[in-house]
Amino acid sequence: MISNLVNDYLPILLFLAIAGVITVVAVGLSFVMAKQKPDSEKLSPYECGFPAFDDARAKFDVRYYLVAILFIIFDLEVAFLFPWAVALGDIGIYGFWSMMLFLGVLTVGFIYEWTKGALEWE
Prior knowledge:
Blueprint: H1 2-33, H2 40-43, H3 63-86, H4 88-116
C-alpha cells in the first residue's frame, strides 16, 4: 500500500524538486550575473505615486484604491467569462441569461463609477 502511494506521488515530488532547483539556480545566477547598482530612477516611485520608504501613516489619494478595485472587478469578469464560454453548450439558456445578468450588473457598476468621476485622473 505504501509503495503504491509512493509510486503515485513520486512524479509530483520529483517535479517539485526540479522546479525548486531551477528556481534557486535562476535566482542565484541573477545575483551573480546581474549588475546590482540601482540608480535613482530605479528607486523612485513607480505606480503608487508616493515614495516607498516613507511614513506608513502618510495620506495619499483614494483614487489609487478605486483604480485597483476596478481592475480586480473587470479582471474577475474575464476570469468568469472563459469557463462560461467553454461550457456554454452544456449549460444552456439558463447559463446564458445568468451570465448576461452578471455582465449587466457589472456594466451598471461601471457606468456608475464613470458618472461619479472615479475614472477621471487629474
